[in-house]
Amino acid sequence: MTSNNNNTLVALSAAMADAVEKAGASTVTVDARQRMPASGIAYSAEMVLTADHVVERDEDISVQLPDGSRVSAALAGRDPGNDLALLKLTGAGLVPAETSAAPARIGQLALALGRPSQEGIQASLGVVSALGGPVRTGSGGLLEKYLRTDAIPYPGFSGGPLVDASGYLLGVNTSGLARGVSLTIPVSLAWQVAEALAQHGSVRRGFLGIRSQPVSINGAAQRLLGRSQSTGLLLVGVEESSPADEGGLIVGDILVGLQEAVIDDPDELLVRLSGSIVGQQAAVEVLRGGQPLKLSVKIGERK
Question: Which of 147, 179, 202 is the last residue of a domain?
Answer without folding.
Answer: 202
